Amino acid sequence: MSLKIQGFILIDVDVVALNNAGKSNSSNFDNAMATKKIYKNGKAYTYVSGQAWRYWWRDTLQKNYGWDLSPVIRDKKIAFTAANPITFADDDVFGYMKAAKEVKTDDQGEPVLSKGGKEQKVDVTVTRSSPLRNSAIISVAATRTVENWSSMARQEGDSVPYSKEEYSAVMKGMFSLDMGQVGTFASYNKTGFKNLTEKLRAEALAGGATELADPFVKDGKGNAHQLVQLPKEVRIQRMKDTIGALKTISGGAMQTNNMADVTPKFIVLATTTTGNHPFSHIAKNGGAYQENAELNIAGLEEVLTDYKEQLKGTVYIGKRNGFMDEYHEVLQALADKFDNVELCSVNQAIDQYCAQVENQVE
Amino acid sequence: MRVFKIDITSWTASFRYPNLISGFQPTLEVPPVSTVLGLINAAAGHYVAHSTLKLGYYFEYQSKAVDLETIYQIGAHKGMPSNHAKSNIIRREFLFEAFLRLYVTSQEVADYFRSPVYPIVLGRMNDLASIAGGVRECSLVPRDHADQLRGQVVPFSKHQLPGQIQALPKYFTDSFPRNNLGVEPYSVIGHGQGVSARLEAFRDEEKEVDVYFHDLSF
């Protein structure tokens, strides 16, 4: 049974343009930038793409958690120089697709030698689908964006007008991190399973990794394929860092004049025994014009009841004081009603949940 | 007909056109059969080697939007990808507030969704989805003359229904590299407008949709 870390967040941002969509085609200015938004029933919902959120996440792990990121050389062309999830935690958690060389082997698994006695090499592609899956970050309620007219006027001559599209919103995001996949790699020749070359596999095993039977994938003879798993403390640290990074995550466009705090102001963290993400509907919009961001407390209670059997350990709900304070009492009542629910501050929720993860990793 | 119903919802979804590699990336309005079979595999936790499968599904969404995205165009060397890439920006269409309902007759397949092994995504890793309401059993009434075929793909060669005609894959092997187990033209019928046809379909009264069942054999 592979446990999953399931997270749901709300961020609260004012006068931002966190993720932009290029040149605006609805502005009178030549020099106008549009922000990313979705229209539904004639109303706009601003969003940050999932790709951008991952970029902030990776960046935060590098700056605040000392992650040594998998090297990328930026010259005329970009070169990915490693597909090494053993050494680089970001390769492990965020996934990759890279080219590699593999020693050619015969049917007995012995290296095929050239006439000169050297091992022959073949090109292979190693892939890893990310154990961390996340949504886009989308405004909970309909949002009215404004076009902010700005000008660059420090030079001689005419000023240069430009505009950007700004908004204030409560925005929701969710993610899923597969505990069983972090620090655990396959190297067999199956689509999506060849995470490692044989060389890297051997290096990992020599460096303290262990072998583990894959519960789902068998070879032609019916024997379980062997996965390579990093030591428990390494895997735990990578998971704790990934979740912990949410405490200080920063990012987004236009930070010079539109800086925003994009750390969660409300968070739900839970461990589930299945891959299903249960918290997708615990925020909703309300009011006559769908412009109010609301918590769906009845929906949250329903999830806690319906998925009781699939929730393992404590569900941590964190809320920042000053954000949605009108829900504090009902959330407290919910925490009192369920033995497995804890209400605290956002950072306490993250820290306590990370402590729980330590005991849940197998 | 007794079937198991599974509802899957997501905030965003995208299903790429298999034959478009560069430039604007539109999304299909309905996932191909191979995508749905991939979801079944994700729920099962392993590649399911179906010999036969009876499968129906209905897909709807609230709106479409276009995202701006960084892509890395990976170079090729002797038919294999190299590690050299060119960064580029593309516009990619996606669907907002998606809903997919699966109808399966197999208890075994339905059970996969009671406790899915891997997270379910409707498209790519950023299209995280949820299974809403678990697995429900219900009866669908057959209709000889379906007039609400929508939110589905229907094989074109056999039924020649209006819609967007697309060559779509049915399934892939789990070999390395993956092999396509057959492509055929489908009418991709969006959820907005029901199509009439003389073919056997089953009515889902809750969604007021006539469901076409794919009888797949591999």
Concise structural overview:
Chain A is an alpha+beta fold and 362 residues long. Chain A has seven helices and 21 strands.
What does this structure look like?
The complex is a heterodimer of chains A (362) and B (218). Chain A is an alpha+beta fold and 362 residues long. Chain A has one domain. Chain A is built from seven helices and 21 strands. Chain A has helices at residues 50-65, 89-94, 198-206, 232-244, 297-306, 328-337, 346-360, and strands at residues 4-16, 20-23, 32-35, 37-40, 43-48, 72-74, 78-80, 96-103, 121-128, 132-134, 137-139, 146-152, 160-178, 184-185, 210-218, 224-229, 266-272, 283-286, 292-295, 311-319, 341-344. In chain A, the strands form five sheets. In chain A, strands 1, 2, 3, 4, 5, 10, 11, 12, 13, 17, 20 and 21 form a twelve-stranded mixed sheet that branches. In chain A, strands 14-16-15 form a three-stranded antiparallel sheet, with helices on one face. The model of chain A has no long low-confidence stretch (mean pLDDT 93). Chain B has one domain (2-216): 2-Layer Sandwich (Alpha-Beta Plaits), CATH 3.30.70. With 218 residues, chain B is mainly beta. Chain B has helices spanning 33-44, 107-112, 156-159; strands at 2-13, 52-77, 80-104, 129-139, 141-143, 146-149, 152-155, 164-169, 183-189, 195-197, 201-204, 209-211, 213-217. In chain B, strand 2 (52-77) and strand 3 form a beta hairpin. In chain B, the strands form four sheets. Chain B has a five-stranded antiparallel sheet. Chain B has three helices and 13 strands, in the order E-H-E-E-H-E-E-E-E-H-E-E-E-E-E-E. Helices cover 10% and strands 52% of the residues of chain B.
Strand residue content of chain A = 35-45%
Say how many strands of chain A there are.
Answer: 21
- Main pleated-sheet profile of chain B: 5 strands, antiparallel
Q: Helix and strand succession of chain B?
A: EHEEHEEEEHEEEEEE
Round the mean pLDDT of chain B to the nearest integer and report it.
93
Question: What string, H for helix and E for strand, traces the elements of chain A in order?
Answer: EEEEEHEEHEEEEEEEHEEHEEEHEHEH
Question: Unreliable runs of chain B, pLDDT <50, ≥5 residues?
Answer: none
Biggest beta sheet attributes of chain A: 12 strands, mixed
Radius of gyration from the alpha-carbon trace of chain B, in angstroms: 18 Å
Side-by-side strand order of the widest sheet of chain B = 4-1-3-2-13
Count of strand segments of chain B: 13
What is the CATH architecture descriptor of chain B?
A: 2-Layer Sandwich
| Quaternary organization | heterodimer
Mean pLDDT of chain A: 93
The secondary structure category of chain B is mainly beta
